[in-house]
Each structure stands twice: as structure tokens, then as C-alpha cells.
Write a structure and sequence with these properties.
single chain, two-stranded antiparallel sheet, globular
């Protein structure tokens, strides 16, 4: 979690090590390793590989709960964007994906948090965080 007095984020050493190890991987490498012997790759494999590559550079810090359905998060992605204070709201996943924090699979209908729609559209507009994961982060903060 992020200590607001020092601006330092605690990082799980295991997740940091996995992130460092996967930095040399590309989507093509992951897809090649996951491809069945017949050489056919599925949309699911490609999506999972892309999510893994995207997730490795994201740091999310819980700032505060604003309402029963909204929270304020700090989102830092070294490769795409950084939002010091971004409002996320509860929703139901309309399609499958990957939790940006835990890497767990998100199924259609799962309770999630996603960035509140704004103009201009945030670069992380497609990101999802499982509600159960965010609740664990909130209780630890």
C-alpha cells in the first residue's frame, strides 16, 4: 500500500520478481509457448498473453472510499499512463478479462471496479479490478 506521508508503495517481493522475470517476455513469446502443437492459437491465449504483458507494469494504490460504490485509486503504468487520483466505480463485468491487480480471471457477471467514464476517455478505461480483491486492499489499508 502507499504511505501518503512518504509517497512510497509497498511491493510484494514475489510479484516484483515475477514482474522482472516477465519483462523480457513479449506477447509473441507467451503465445508461442502456449500454442498447441498444431500451431493454432486461440483468441483466449492471445488475450491472456496481452493481459499478462500489460499487467506487469501497473501499480495500483488505494487512496480512499468515496461512497458505497466508488473509490479513489492511484494508477501508475510505466508504459501507458499515470493517474494520481482516479475515481473507480462498481459494475458487473460485461465480458471476460484479467484483474489488473491480482491477475485472476474475470468472468462476465463478476463484481468489479472500473474507471469512471470521463472526457477525455482515460487510457486505462478497459481495466478491471475484482471487487473482492479491492476489498482486501481496502481492509489492509
Amino acid at each position: 500500500m502507499m504511505d501518503s506521508r512518504t509517497n512510497v508503495t509497498d511491493v510484494d517481493p514475489w510479484m516484483q520478481m515475477l514482474g522482472l522475470l516477465t519483462q523480457s517476455c513479449t506477447v509473441r513469446d507467451v503465445c508461442a509457448a502456449a500454442r498447441p502443437r498444431g500451431g493454432r492459437r486461440t483468441r483466449v491465449v492471445v488475450a491472456a498473453a496481452a493481459a499478462m504483458v500489460e499487467r506487469r507494469s501497473v501499480a495500483v494504490s488505494f487512496l480512499e472510499r468515496q461512497t458505497a460504490t466508488t473509490v479513489s485509486l492511484a494508477w501508475r503504468d510505466a508504459t501507458r499512463c499515470a493517474y494520481g487520483e482516479q475515481v473507480w466505480q462498481t459494475a458487473r463485468a460485461r465480458f471476460g478479462g484479467v484483474c489488473a491487480v491480482s491477475g485472476r480471471a474475470v468472468q462476465p457477471g463478476d463484481a468489479i471496479y472500473r474507471p469512471r467514464p470521463t472526457r477525455p476517455v482515460p487510457l486505462n478505461a478497459g481495466a478491471m479490478i475484482l471487487a473482492s480483491v479491492l476489498e482486501q486492499i481496502e481492509s489492509a489499508a
